[in-house]
Design goal:
This protein has about 550 residues and is of the alpha/beta class. The chain is about 50% helix and about 10% strand. It starts with a helix and ends with a helix.
């Protein structure tokens, strides 16, 4: 039995869960008209209504007791202070330093890192200005009008999704295109849509060893040369963001064009670093800075608010409640906001690459579920796709709904419809529709009683499906920064409770190694006996289909 599951606080939660499971939220709302009033929280411009959760006062209290028993506050402070909490890579975890607008120093190996953080921000600001004001010119003297941002995972999702989310703030000076996949169609489509004389490539790779990013950048370099550029002109059209400066210069990126990042920033936590350069280029530096400022506000909230008033902590505990005591396999994000349509994909990497693990800090196998599957899409689209399962499927899928109260190009009818769908879905999930009500609806339909009961069973909506609803005035850089930081800290707290190292990603390494071996097999440079019969068969089919004609 693990330390976690043997805690008295854990045992208490197990007991409470059994009693809560027999209750219906409908009855709780009926019994306590103040429930909604009591179960709301505001932080950093974000309003959270968590009343539609399957928790009562006893369960919430026991959850906060669990957080204390797991030393959440101590480990939170250890993270902010630069302790090497990434226990398998011996690194600090300091994405919070990237947006530290206090005058507090942040020490790594005895050095205050804030001066280099500020220097890099200044480099981003100056470079952004040089592109936007046309002073940085291409090799034929033309200003830059297109940015091709190449990266994958945390070197792609943050820049792309933040830029998409803040589309109303994009500048006219440049158009930013994102390329991630090694599928050549993507880089081909992007490069054929731009004039290289007016194009800057931003290659982002913390390790500078990611196959997809290296290959896409090589293709871009080949394209540039074939378009008339020379090696000497590369410096005008290629910059890199990496912690591996040597590999970047060896690749041909000039040292002046390398924006540094540090090993104490994880890839999925790196949009606040120079990985965010495409965001600054797309939106202007001030809007990029607004993201950072919003995240800083959430950091301050997370670092100082009492646990019971602490939004990331509350969200983390509700997630643990469903994951570990209601067997919830996943958690769905439903932004009722077209511009936030990418947020589920962003949180997917953040959460699943952090807590998709089954070994504790001590190296023992867990005896409890850990990170859930994160998925979702924009509302109202999901209602016409997967909401059927959320409403009537087996099991519990906790949902995060989110809605800006005001939107650009405000069209009152559209926005009222969007909001009413958002709120209506949370109400339907909570209250459902009883068999009796469905049976009554079928009166006078000419059905015999057996058929009436059968159809009523199909139409019954169990309800009691939990959801959080986030509201905010409008989707500003500040709010978006706070929202993302809120999820970062939720993931952190869950990792602490599950006793995981949330900051490495060893699980992705084997696939990369084997992928390179298969590549050699496909290119005819590897002994087919290296591969299992199925993989051999797949390689053979691919080679046959692509054999020179
Ligand atoms: O393979 C997983 C991963 O390392 C992610 O953690 C990371 O965000 C992505 O690949 C890209 O890594 P890099 O920025 O080093 O190219």
């Amino acid at each position: 039995m693990s330390v976690l599951t043997s805690l008295p606080q854990w045992q208490k939660l197990s007991e409470l869960a059994e009693s809560v499971k027999s209750a219906h939220m409908r009855d709780w709302f009926e019994a306590d008209p103040q429930r909604a009033e009591k179960m709301q929280l505001e932080a950093c411009g974000i309003f959270l209504d968590y009343a539609k959760n399957r928790v009562n006062d006893d369960a919430l209290s026991a959850l906060f007791d669990l957080a204390r028993a797991c030393n959440v506050e101590t480990l939170r402070d250890a993270m902010f202070s630069g302790e090497q909490i990434n226990s398998t890579e011996g690194r600090a975890v300091l994405h919070t330093a990237l947006r530290n607008f206090s005058d507090r120093p942040v020490m790594v190996d005895g050095q205050n890192v804030m001066p280099e953080v500020h220097d890099t921000l200044a480099k981003i600001e100056a470079f952004t200005a040089s592109i936007h004001n046309g002073s940085h010119k291409g090799y034929t003297g033309k200003p830059i009008k297109h940015i091709v941002a190449i990266g994958i995972g945390g070197s792609f999702l943050g820049p792309k999704i933040m830029t998409e989310a803040l589309k109303p703030h994009t500048v006219d000076a440049v158009k930013v295109h994102f390329v991630a996949n090694v599928d050549g169609c993507h880089i081909h489509d992007v490069l054929s849509s731009v004039d290289f004389e007016e194009t800057l490539v931003v290659m982002s790779s913390k390790s500078f060893s990611t196959q997809e990013t290296l290959q896409n950048t090589l293709t871009a370099k080949d394209w540039f040369i074939k378009s008339g550029g020379t090696q000497e002109d590369i410096a005008k059209h290629f910059v890199a963001v990496s912690s591996n400066v040597k590999a970047a210069t060896d690749f041909g990126i000039s040292a002046d064009n390398i924006f540094p990042m540090w090993d104490w920033v994880g890839g999925r936590y790196s949009l606040w670093s120079a990985i965010g350069l495409p965001i600054s280029l797309a939106l202007g530096f001030e809007n990029f800075k607004g993201l950072l400022e919003g995240a800083f506000e959430m950091d301050t909230h997370f670092a100082t608010a009492p646990l019971e008033q602490n939004m990331p902590v509350l969200l983390a505990l509700l997630g643990v409640w469903y994951r570990n005591f209601f067997d919830a396999q996943s958690h769905v994000l439903l932004p009722y906001c077209h511009y936030l349509r990418g947020l589920p994909a962003y949180v997917q990497q953040l959460d699943m690459e952090s807590n998709g693990k089954e070994v504790t800090q001590e190296g023992d196998s867990v005896d409890y579920p850990t990170g859930p599957i994160i998925w979702g899409s924009e509302g109202t689209n999901g209602q016409h796709s997967f909401h059927q399962l959320i409403h009537q499927g087996s099991g519990v899928i906790p949902a995060d709904f989110m809605l800006p109260l005001n939107v650009p190009n405000q069209d009152d009818t559209h926005h009222a419809m969007l909001a009413s769908n958002c709120f209506g879905q949370t109400q339907a999930l909570m209250q459902g529709k009883t068999f009796e009500a469905c049976y009554a609806d079928l009166d006078g339909k000419g059905l015999d009683d057996a058929e009436r009961k059968r159809l009523a069973a199909h139409k019954t909506m169990p309800g009691n499906k939990p959801s959080n609803t986030f509201l905010f005035e409008s989707l500003t850089p500040n709010i978006l920064g706070a929202l993302v930081a809120m999820y970062e800290h939720k993931v952190f707290v869950q990792g602490v409770i599950w006793n995981l190292n949330s900051f490495d990603q060893w699980g992705v390494e084997l696939g990369k190694v084997l992928g390179n071996q298969v590549l050699a097999g496909i290119q005819g440079e590897a002994d087919k006996d290296n591969f299992d019969a199925s993989t051999q068969q797949l390689i053979a089919k691919f080679r046959a289909a692509n054999a020179p004609k």
